[in-house]
Prior knowledge:
- By secondary structure, the chain is mainly beta.
- The chain has helices at 64-76, 88-91; strands at 2-7, 10-16, 18-23, 26-39, 42-48, 53-58, 101-108, 113-119, 129-134, 143-149.
- It contains two helices and ten strands.
- The strands form two sheets. Strands 3, 4, 5, 7, 8, 9 and 10 form a seven-stranded antiparallel sheet that branches. Strands 1-2-6 form a three-stranded antiparallel sheet, with helices on one face.
- It starts with a strand and ends in a 6-residue tail after the last strand.
Amino acid sequence: VFGIFSDKNGGVVVYYTLYILCYTKEVTRVQIREMNATFGKLKNDTLTLQPGLNCIYAPNESGKSTWSHFLRVMLYGINTRDRGPLADKHRFAPWAGWAMGGKMDLVTDEGETITLRRDTARANAPMGNFSCTYTGTATPAPFQRGCVRRKARSF
């Protein structure tokens, strides 16, 4: 769960690192530990999160909203049917001209570490390649694509 709160000097992005992934038929909680992105203004940048609530306070135009959009795209993909300059596939195309891509390291309540990856193989399908493996291996984790659910949490 994340939100963006602004003030006159900048903004704060709040990440609560609890997400739910569907493993076969079970629901497992995971925490996001690290994200690495080439997405919008981010050029192979890394964001490391701690367990629990993470607040990111930074000046305007420093990438807080970009990280929020990257997180959503990593979990749900990017809508390639949207058209126009404000479609996410155009709006978050890397400024450096690189291919859009990234990875997200997760840890389950059982202590298993999982890496989600998305990258771009075709220009018309940014972030279309998806993989979910146990971290440091090529072994697929039992993840059903499209089965990520957000869990409502009040603050």
